[in-house]
């Protein structure tokens, strides 16, 4: 069996891992990459100055702050208190501190959250599937449906399962400029369509920790079915943030959907 899905995720509540994650993200995703991804969001859907956006699993806050700088009102939602606080600090040091807010919350329980506002669009980049059962995903999509304005949009970015399997890497490691070393060992469980990995992390001070993480992967057909079962209409799929056509060789599967049949 792939994993015990009831086992709590020990990464996002862990101060050591959050510090590593923030440093890694700053190095792996410089401002130019964030701007490229923000360009994608603006180009893939119809947005107007001042529209309200919901950033699901907002992480370091890089997308939310970038979109706020483009004139949108953005709410970032993340499971990790540590990441929410870090995002708030970054926003307070920016020119758009009044246009972006970050709150702690679990997207797997989005259908139960009371956010007291609706949004023109929601997006979840590189996070769907992590410690997320199929019911969790349905709960998230149900919540998105009720939070979107009529005709509102949803963008979901996940790894391309077909390319992942074609170029599967069982082991990789990285080291940040600040001295964090991370070794990751990964397996794929075909029955559940999940990757399962162990992350061995060593801090600059020599402290060591092991983290466990699993991620559900999706075919395009599965993704479309999830969307349609929750009242969202599939519109288009892209293979990367340059809006290249999706194929078996694409690194990403970026799906655009909307709440009803309005023209995109």
Automatic annotation (TrEMBL):
GO terms for biological process: methylation. InterPro entries: Methyltransf_25 (IPR041698), SAM-dependent_MTases_sf (IPR029063). The keyword Methyltransferase applies. Signal peptide: none annotated. GO terms for molecular function: methyltransferase activity. Keywords: Methyltransferase, Transferase. Residues 54-152 form the Methyltransferase domain. PANTHER family: TRANS-ACONITATE 2-METHYLTRANSFERASE, TRANS-ACONITATE 2-METHYLTRANSFERASE-RELATED. This is Methyltransferase type 11. It comes from Natranaerobius thermophilus (strain ATCC BAA-1301 / DSM 18059 / JW/NM-WN-LF).
